[in-house]
Amino acid sequence: MQGTISLDLTEGSWTAGGDMTFTRASDGRTLRFTGAHGDMARRSLLTDAAVGDEAAQPVELSTYELDMARVTVTPPSLNSPGSVESQPFDTTLEPDGAAVFSRAFDASPVPTGSSLATLAGRVDVVSASG
After folding, report:
1. Exposure of 57 in the CB half-sphere (CA atoms within 13 A)
2. By C-alpha distance, which of 59, 92, 87, 93 is closest to 72?
3. CB burial of residue 98 (10 Å; 0-12, 13-18, 19+)
4. DSSP strand pairing (2-5 vs 12-23)
5. DSSP code of 106?
6. What is the structure's pLDDT at 1?
7. Phi, psi of 96 (to 5 degrees)
8. 63 vs 86: CA distance, rounded Å
C-alpha cells in the first residue's frame, strides 16, 4: 500500500495493489475488483470493477467512519518507521457498489447503507521528508 496521509487521518489518499474476484458457482459469472484507492477526507473506498469480460469501470464501493479512539498512530522516527493501526471497523456499501454487485449477480450481498465488510489493519509509514 502506498499513499500520503495526514497523521490525524483527515486528509490524503492511499492505493493498494492486488485484486479480489467473486464467482457464482452455478454459472461461473464473475465480478472482479482491482486497484483499491482510499480517500481519507471522504472516508471512501474506490476500486475498478469488471463484470465478466467487460472493461473495468471506477466504482465507489464503500465508505467508513473511523473512531480515532480505536486507531493508534505512531509517528516515524530516525530509528524506525511509524505506523497506523486500526482496530476493526465496518464499511458501508454505497449505491454504486450495490449496483455493480446487482449487475454481476442480480442482487447485492447487502442493502445499500448496510455493512459490507469489517476491516482492521496496520501499515508502516515514513516521513514525507524521509
Report:
1. 12
2. 87
3. buried
4. antiparallel
5. S
6. 72
7. -65, -40
8. 16
67, three cell numbers: 473512531
CA distance readout (Å), 27 to 23, 52, 104: 8, 11, 11
d(CA 37, CA 16): 6
Q: What is the pLDDT along the chain (130 residues), one digit of tens a residue?
A: 788 888 788 898 888 889 999 999 999 999 999 999 999 999 999 999 999 999 999 999 999 998 889 999 888 888 888 888 999 999 999 999 999 999 999 999 999 999 999 998 888 887 666 5
Does residue 124 contact residue 80 with C-beta atoms inside 8 Å?
A: no
C-alpha 103/C-alpha 24 separation (Å) is: 13
Task: Name 121's Cβ contacts closer than 8 Å, sequence gap at least 6.
Answer: 85, 86
